[in-house]
Amino acid sequence: MKQKTIYVLWGGAFILCAGLGFVEEPQGLTRWLLTGLSVLCFLPPALLLYRAAGDRDRNTLALVRNLSALSLGLTLALLVLNLLSAQWPESVGQLLYVLLVVVSSPMICSGYWALSLFLWACLLMGALSGLRRLRKDSEKSA
């Protein structure tokens, strides 16, 4: 599978999760399907990491690292702002929640927030490990 196809699959899964993140309180089979979809959203970047480590592709490792760190950082900021928005007008809280759904779409889609945060952290740590390994290898050869 071409790398461009994997990026398209990742983006498509992310967008699908964002749209389905607005389903309110799914029950039964729907909840399981949404959770499965949100976990599948992490399959393309995991494949990209695997290939990048084998191909020694620093750019892909850096991209996955940056996207993972950005998602985790923005999720934290938006969660804190959502909590603080209890004192603000309702429209601000709704806007912040919409931003949270878009930024953290697998997290909201699955309903199991810790699972999505864990998978983003796994991607981040995998990318950091791959970049560290490449740096050590380049230092040995120099």
Describe this structure as you would to a colleague.
With 142 residues, the protein is an all-alpha fold. 85% of the residues lie in helices and 0% in strands. The protein has seven helices and no strands. Helix 1 runs antiparallel to helix 3 and helix 4 runs antiparallel to helix 5 (90-103). The chain is globular and about 60 Å long.
Comma- or semicolon-separated keywords:
142 residues, mainly alpha, 7 helices, 0% strand
Using DSSP, what is the number of strands?
0
Helix-strand topology string? HHHHHHH
Largest sheet: none
Class based on secondary structure composition and strand pairing? mainly alpha
Average the pLDDT over all residues and give the rounded result.
93
Q: In DSSP terms, counting alpha (H) and pi (I) runs of 4 or more, how many helices?
A: 7
Shape: globular
Beginning-to-end CA distance, first to last residue: 33 Å
Helical percentage: over 70%
Strand proportion, as a percent range, falls in under 5%
Compute the CA-based radius of gyration: 17 Å
Sequence stretches where pLDDT stays below 50 over 5 or more residues: none
